[in-house]
Amino acid sequence: MSNARVYARNLAANWIGHGASMIVLFFLSPFVIHTLGNVQYGIWSLLSVLTGYMGILDLGVRASTGRHVTLYIGKEDHKSVDETIRTSLAFFSAFGILIVAVGVALGWIFPSAFSSVPVEYHALVRLLLPILAMNMWLTALRSVLSSVLIAHDRFDLSNAVDLIMLAIQTAGTVLVLNAGLGLLGLTLIVVGCNVLGVIITWMLARRVYRRLKVWPFVFSKPRM
């Protein structure tokens, strides 16, 4: 395939991905707000912000991983590609343990930090924060695997995974909220879609890059 066709394919995939996300956000947000109600939606927004800030704990490793995977694949230095990926996965495994611990800690201080949240939601928040923190870990793992697709100019495959997750998450959100499962159901849908995204991305990365290995982890100080 010519470079022009690759660029056009990748550009179209990015536009479709962004466009689909905007359309879903536009139509789904009013439904979520109306179904959850002001209090639960406010809690959900607060939980999303708190767990989103946990992303800074990756210290730029996701961006660095993508840069180095692309560099070493371009050089056909497969040993360095392997070490980069498995070292990043090792880092994010430790990162996952850390952010779940932070999620547990935030869950316990949440009632005193946000005293306006009704008491009946305190126990639920203590449960949901560690789960949503784990979701950040899953996102980090998926980004490492996606870097393999992007390094091979397969933005179409990377965006296809995002679209599959978006479709399932949208349908799942409607179903769980209509079933009255509220914040817990919404959390399980988000995390479940991310688990599926990790699995699909891993399968596609293996197909594009046959040399891909994710185990055992490499704790390499020079590579880190």
Question: In summary, what is this structure?
Answer:
The chain is 81% helix and 0% strand.
What does this structure look like?
The protein is mostly helical. Helices cover 81% and strands 0% of the residues. It is built from six helices and no strands. The longest helix has 51 residues, at 3-53. The protein is globular, with a radius of gyration of 19 Å.
Strand tally is: 0
User: What about the largest sheet?
Assistant: none
Quaternary status of these chains?
single chain
Radius of gyration from the alpha-carbon trace, in angstroms: 19 Å
Keywords:
224 residues, mainly alpha, 6 helices, globular
How do the helices and strands line up, and which of them pair or pack?
Elements: H1 3-53, H2 61-74, H3 78-113, H4 122-151, H5 155-178, H6 182-208
